[in-house]
Amino acid sequence: MSWLSLIFGEKKSTASVAKERLQLIIARERAGQSGPDFLPDLQKDLVAVISKYVQVNPEDIKVGLEKQGNYEVIEVNIVLPDTARPA
User: Fold this and answer.
1) What is the Cα–Cα distance from 41 to 85, expressed in whole angstroms?
2) Residue 66: what pLDDT?
3) Smallest Cα–Cα separation from 52: which of 11, 10, 12, 14?
4) What is the pLDDT of residue 9?
5) Is the N end or the C end of the chain the one with fewer CB atoms within 10 Å?
6) Is 63 exposed, middle or buried (CB count within 10 Å of its CB: 0-12, 13-18, 19+)?
């Protein structure tokens, strides 16, 4: 660890930040502290992250919450643009 990272902190990758956010959401859900009102914020975060790599319409990313027995499942559907290139 460099002395700069000790002073200013380390910059986290986008993936690790997203993972931490999902872990917090799941923990809050299990504790019963929050309802599915987090889904719009999660969808905005996903649009921001995916848009860094692929040009996608925000309306083409759908996030849903489904209960399957004792589990709650976050379902993410993303319609990616056709990347086929003419020869």
Assistant:
1) 34
2) 80
3) 14
4) 61
5) C
6) buried
Structure tokens at 29: 């859900």
How do the domains of the chain map onto residue ranges? 11-78
Give me the half-sphere count of Cα atoms (radius 13 Å) on the Cβ side of residue 34: 13
Is the CB of residue 76 less than 8 Å from the CB of residue 62?
yes
DSSP 45-82: HHHHHHHTTS---GGGEEEEEEEETTEEEEEEEE-PPP
Topology annotation, domain 11-78: Cell Cycle; Chain A (3.30.1070)
Question: How many residues in the chain?
Answer: 87
> Using CA atoms, how far apart are residues 80 and 83, in angstroms rounded to an integer?
8
Residue range 8-52, pLDDT digits in tens = 566 667 777 788 888 877 776 676 644 557 778 888 888 888 888
